[in-house]
Each structure stands twice: as structure tokens, then as C-alpha cells.
Amino acid sequence: MAAGGRIERWKARAARLKVETYALCLACRHPGVPWYAKAFTACVVAYAVSPIDLIPDFIPVLGYLDDLVLVPLGIYLALRMVPPAVLGECRCRAREAVLAGGARGRAAAAVVVAVWLLAAALAVVLLLRLRHR
């Protein structure tokens, strides 16, 4: 098999993963999804788009384990928790949004980065207060 064919296959998988992740994001806000599925799905989506990894990427082999195994496994489990009718509706909306452009994706990434920066700032403030006691 040619390398170009493999690359195209990986690009297609990545595009599907992007649509599925956005569909799960939409499902988190859908009233037809049970609360436990919303909670799990929200955690999976937040981890998938987060720049912070459970296992840092600079650790050889294990660093990419979360990107190659944990994220797809979490997405798979979350997809199984969402009712099929809701999932179909959310997938359709996600495909339309992805085809329309990535402006919302950049905005969502900016929000995630802002939340992590806020959490880091709060941690620094708390550590400084504990140090001065």
C-alpha cells in the first residue's frame, strides 16, 4: 500500500473523529440525553480538546497513549451512552458545522485554554497564600 493512501486514510479518520467530538459536544446540551451521559460526555469532550494530557507527550511511547487509545475509547463509550435519535441529529448538525468552517472550533479551543490558564492562576494564588501563613 502506498504511503499516500495511508495518509489519506488517517486524514479521513481524523475528520470523522472531529465530527464525532463536535457531535458529542452538541449532545451535552441536548435535553434528550440522560444526566449521567451528559456528565461523562462533557468530561470526554473537555479532555479531547484540552491541551493538557494525562500522560505528557514527551514521555516516549506512553506519551501518545492517551491520544491514540484513551480519547477514542472515551468517545466510543460516550457515543454508546447517547440515545441513537439524538446522536443522529447531533451528527448531522456537527457535519454541517465542520463543513461551514472552523471558527467555532477555534473559539472552543480558546475557551478551554482560558479555563486552564484561570485554573493555573488560581493554583498559584492559593499556593502563595498558603506559603505566607
Would you give an account of this structure?
With 133 residues, the chain is mainly alpha-helical. The protein folds into two domains: 3-101, no CATH class; 102-133. Helix content is 78%, strand content 0%. It has five helices and no strands. The protein has helices spanning 3-28, 35-49, 65-81, 84-100, 103-131. α1 packs across α2, α1 (3-28) packs across α4 and α2 runs antiparallel to α3. The chain is globular and about 55 Å long. The mean pLDDT is 83.
pLDDT < 50 runs, ≥5 residues:
none
- Name the shape in a single word: globular
Largest sheet: none
Number of domains: 2
Instruction: Compute the number of helices.
Output: 5
Terminal CA distance? 65 Å
Structural class: mainly alpha
The proportion of residues in beta strands is under 5%
Average of per-residue pLDDT values: 83
Proportion in helices: over 70%
What brief labels describe this structure?
2 domains; 133 residues; globular; 5 helices; mainly alpha
How are the SSEs ordered, and which strands pair?
Blueprint: H1 3-28, H2 35-49, H3 65-81, H4 84-100, H5 103-131
Brief sketch in words of this structure:
By secondary structure, the chain is mainly alpha-helical. It has helices at residues 3-28, 35-49, 65-81, 84-100, 103-131.
